[in-house]
Design brief:
mainly alpha; globular
């Protein structure tokens, strides 16, 4: 009997937990648990300590939004740890991880707007500094030769709303998957199918959301000049891209037959989700600690950003007022 035949005859229970994984992997799984604990502990400790210190580091209006951002790395680590301990939850944890990151994108946009003094202040700053809308941002770099429009209230609202739309779509995907689970419906597994319509819709929405979010990051790079919190958005974007690329990478591995099952309890799908979450746990730790450190930035950095925008606005008003006496004298 070859390996593919043995994989087809696996008797896999509905819930695959630590005992089933141990039966398939042996003490290699014990080593994974030890390493996982050593990664989970510092992220949770750093997140908890930072949450308690936020009120002394930031103004009151920034504390709630920043607290949500600080919770992102511990949430990612907890979810990946859950999927490693119980691999049968991998499909649902994968969507939950995307929801957490999309929630982080939304919260970063809210924090950036607060740091810049509101949407009107961002638009006025862009007009003063002649900052144009970066329509050639990835993934649509083909638009680089096109003429850049100005930053207006309409396109700023679009950049703010696109990640919210992506978050709603990801939540809808999770709800549909859970409904399929409750009614014991088994999807066909085909990409072009009615039961995969929610995942097909998510692709163009995700592309649009990342495009708008990338444009917003480019604008914040100028508006939050000198403020290290602008790097929070880059880390979140990097996590989203890396987590998404992992899915494509494992589609390639399974399609070419480079991954297979591990008898007696790990099917190919479970092996894929297990390996994905091993990698995601390392990524969440490596990017999570610097992320939490940036969230706990000092008040002086935030104040300098505000003063930059305030100075720009004051100079804009003074320029307009200085023109009035000159126009009167000429008359």
């Amino acid at each position: 009997m070859n390996l593919s035949e043995s994989c087809a005859k696996l008797d896999i229970p509905a819930v695959v937990g630590p005992s089933e994984v141990y039966s398939s992997l042996g003490h290699w799984n014990t080593a994974v648990y030890v390493i996982l604990f050593l990664h989970l502990l510092p992220v949770w400790c750093a997140g908890t300590i930072t949450l308690f210190r936020l009120s002394s580091c930031l103004p009151p209006n920034l504390v709630p939004t920043t607290a949500w951002l600080v919770s992102i790395p511990p949430a990612l680590m907890s979810l990946t740890a859950t999927a490693i301990v119980v691999p049968s939850l991998g499909k649902y944890v994968e969507v939950l991880l995307e929801i957490v990151i999309c929630f982080g994108l939304v919260k970063f946009i809210q924090l950036s707007i607060l740091l810049c003094g509101g949407r009107d202040n961002i638009i006025s700053f862009c007009r003063k500094k002649k900052i144009m809308l970066p329509i050639g941002s990835p993934p649509f770099i083909c638009l680089l030769p096109c003429r850049k429009p100005g930053v207006t209230s309409a396109n700023l609202n679009m950049m703010v709303f696109a990640p919210v739309l992506l978050l709603i779509v990801k939540i809808a995907i999770l709800v549909i998957d859970l409904v399929f689970l409750m009614i014991s419906y088994k999807p066909s597994g085909n990409f072009i199918a009615y039961d995969n319509l929610h995942n097909i819709i998510a692709f163009p929405v995700g592309l649009l959301a990342i495009y708008c979010y990338t444009m917003f990051n480019f604008i914040m790079n100028d508006c939050l000049e000198g403020n290290n919190k602008k790097f929070l958005g880059i880390i979140l974007l990097l996590e989203f891209i890396l987590f998404d690329c992992l899915r494509l990478f494992f589609i390639f591995l399974t399609g070419t037959g480079m991954l297979t099952c591990v008898p007696p309890f790990l099917s190919q799908d479970l092996v894929v989700h297990l390996l994905k979450n091993y990698i995601k746990a390392f990524l969440a730790t490596g990017l999570g600690i610097p992320f939490i450190k940036l969230c706990s930035g000092k008040v002086e950095v935030q104040q300098s950003s505000d003063s930059t925008l305030s100075t720009s606005m004051s100079s804009l008003v003074s320029d307009e007022s200085s023109k009035l006496p000159i126009e009167k004298n000429s008359q």
